Amino acid sequence: MSFPDKEKRQKCWDSRDRYWECLDKSGDQMEKCMEVRAVYETTCPSQWIACTFIVAASILYRYGDWFRHHIIVTLSVLVAWYFSFLIIFILPLDVTSTAYRQCVQEHTFYTEEPRSNETANLSTTVVPHIIPSNETSVCKLPWSYVPENVLPQLWRVLYWTSQFLTWFVLPLMQSYTKAGDFTVKGKLKSSLIDNAIYYGSYLVIATILLIYLAAKPDFEFDWPKLKAIAASASNTWGLFWLVLLLGYGLVDIPRSVWRSAIPGPLLSRLYFKAAKLNAEKSEAEENLEDYLEALQVALTRISPSDPLRKNAETISDKLPLEWRERMKRKSVNSNQMNESDLNEKSLVRLHRQVIRALQRQHRTETQWYNLVEKIFDLEDVHRNIGSHEHYFKPSFEPVRSTWLARIRSPTLEWYWKCLLRRYVCQGLAMVLALLSVLVVWSELTFFNASPVLSIFAIFVNLAKEYYDYLSIELVSIATIAYMCVCAYSTVLKIRVLNLYYLAPHHQTDEYSLIFSGMLLCRLTPPMCLNFLGLIHMDSHIIKARLMETYYTQIMGHMDVLPIISDGFNIYFPMAILGLCLATYFSLGARFLTFIGFQQFVDDEDDITADLAEEGRELIKREKRKRQRAEDSECRRRNVDINNFARAERNRETGGLLVKRESSRSELFGSTSDNMSNEDDRYDQLFMQASRRIGDDVGSTPATLLTGSTDYRSSYTRSGPAPPRNFFDDV
Prior knowledge:
Distance between the termini: 61 Å
Structural class: mainly alpha
Radius of gyration: 36 Å
Oligomer: single chain
Shape: globular
């Protein structure tokens, strides 16, 4: 689907104007405008859906590996990311459409028609029955207005598909990727067993909840109520984790951006992190070596005719080539494993252990590489800040394409990294900090309907008065996206949950990609419902009757359950303030340091200073290692260039250089001692002979050279004459 050009956009707007003009003239007779409406829906395709898909696919291509990962994993994660991004980008359109419908309702003589929500029967929506022709001109139509029948169907597909993925499909796939069985049936069985506790705990909670509801005399079960209970339970569980994650991210994100502006203090933190990450990396490699040693013993003890040999070779094929060669070079004692230990169950257990060890080793190695690159860049910036030449000189020249090298010249790079980026990061950190303060304040006051204290609700109400729908959409998208970044980044930074890591340049494993898809599908719906409460678009939050968004009508409210409606959804988000204060004063890091898990709290601490110094030495060692590798590569490249140039000169001189080398061998021998002792002497003789030949040819008359064959040089050159001073640089 291509993006609309100017002509297509104009057709869309003209058909929209004709449709609403028809509605003004026809009044309540909607059937008269069905043909105009069909033209409007045809000429205004949903381009934003295609744009969101491109964004999701681009991000997945950056982090995942489409050619190495299984196609089912790639498609499942793509659908999970795509649907979650759609919810984030489409919800502002629903908000503006609802604002328009509320305006029409305020200027319309209507009859109230109660309509039950699909997932909640506790709210009624006021539906305008008659629209006078002179009132639609008062309410301006949003530029991104979506037809009424589109959003309800779209929300049903997005919500229930994402919930099915996050609660059933993706957990099974995540367990399937780390299962150690050698058949598809065995992997599925292991994944089901692995999720039995996971599903069993939720089943017990659901059973207790249903028993509690059945005990109420005025409660009746039906399919809409069951869906409302399921949606409310899922959204409440997501809200619980959302508050915990936001309490850390709303403080850590602005603070991280502010610290990145000044490379000096940040380097101390990164040195400290490098020391801890190197220890984790070494531990992961040792753990993998232990399992590979057991695998090598199994390959040695199992004969080629044994049926278990194929399973052992399957484990070996999972290893990268480097680790496979290392395993072959290492000698092991084949008697350390008994014959009774070599069975299919032990190989399945070994396979599962090798998969987990490989995932951990790959994660730590990728983290180490990215951290080292970041430290190298910060050290270069710190070193070049005081440069009077305004010329950025990196420690290692990056490999860039020609057009990128022209754009990122050393001078422009110096002005950006050493001068401008500092102020940009500080300004961005201030903006993010202000946005965090607004989110926290709105979370504390969004339940107060009169007077309105929520900043986002005040802004939306003012924008609705001036029909500024574009500002509503931009602020809504920015706020929801910022809350998503704060929540999702927290999971990747918490040390306890460091099993997952999203690494760019196609370095993320399948396990982490599946987890990211589960997280997006699980946290996005409650986050959007929480945002609707912040802007007072949820009637159950402000305790008032108003026309709600289609998103709320389809998903219902989170207060269907009496246990939850007694203040959890209103007062629990207020815990964000306490979590933000704890993060600001680093109470969690101080507690972990107190119980023995060293964290970077104060650079004046002795243990912290020792670890930072250890990290500095590790980075110096890594830099020397890369410099030696670069020098070796440079020497090899120079040798290749010299060999190529020598071959070209031999071809141009018709073998003169080859004759020179053979003459050298005949005169002085082929030993290295004679070659080194007589090399200068032979060069002098060869150059004198060459000049003598040139003088003789130059002193010979032209007639003798052209007409007579008596005078000939004893040396004949085959091929074109070499340029002057050709051998000076040989």
